[in-house]
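Q: What does the assembled structure look like for these inputs?
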Amino acid sequence: MKGKSIVITSGKGGVGKTTITANIGTALAMLGKKVVLIDADIGLRNLDVVIGLENRIVYDIVDVVEERCRLEQALIKDKRYRHLFLLPAAQTRDKSAIKEKQMKDLIQGLKESYDYILIDSPAGIEHGFLNAVSGADEAIIVTTPEVAAVRDADRIIGLLESRGLNDPQVIINRIRSDMVRRGDMMTIEDMIEILAINLLGVVPEDEDIIVSTNRGEPIALQEKSKTGEALRNIARRIEGEELPLMTMGKAKLMDKIKRLIGIS
Amino acid sequence: MALFKKSKDVAKERLRLILIHDRIELSPHEMNKLKKDLSRVISKYIRVDQGEVDMNIKRKSGSMVLEADIPIKSSKSS
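A:
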């Protein structure tokens, strides 16, 4: 098997990298793929909590590169999908605990037995980011419809391209259709135009993400959730399916009616 | 006027200028000068609408491209 490694990055913090990583990973596992999620945010580990595996950690990525355990011992199997694994970050070390070469070798090894290796990058453009990017074949950039987040995304695109990671794909997270309609939030088209880049998906702002994260259950697991569907669609696009972007056509019509009759 | 502009359009316009600066390290002031110089040179040969000149730095398969949108004044004589 020769898997694909994809780094999920953003530049700016707090745009939803970790949540997106957990959900895309889960959604790919739902499609029957063998997946490893790597938390590359050493010192600030979070992916374990978002996916609800924090109680099962014995070893972490630094233990692996420093050879205190074998790679298989550090991989934590997901509760729901037996083909989904997490390689947690170390919590008591810092970004310098791993070198780019070690990360590269680690991922190279994982590619032999898994379909996808998703690397959750730390925020910023320093050592931790460079580590996260070093073993990646492709990149996904997460951004939100805000000036600061888009600016940082653009900077990251430049940095990735200078490192040979061309044509990164973008996920626009936390879009609010009500604000877009009012003209108070940039539209998807605005952002594609500004960044001149391929769009992998759009994820709406949704309170349920907080609820599902509280429980440590990625929202992609919820069949009926629209947000879950948006995330599952992203996984299917990664798998090569061509799916149209989810439109809010129906909701829009309902809102129009509501506005017409004055209840919204 | 600016008061009635949608906030997302303000965001977009600000972003465009920020990204030009970030991408090629050209300040908004220098960018404006470039715009003026460019339309002055072009207007030696073609009648252009100087107020409508629009410039952008875009990414195209790994490198930067300077795009200039310079409307030509319609002339009935041609």
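Chain A touches chain B through 24 residues (CB under 8 Å).
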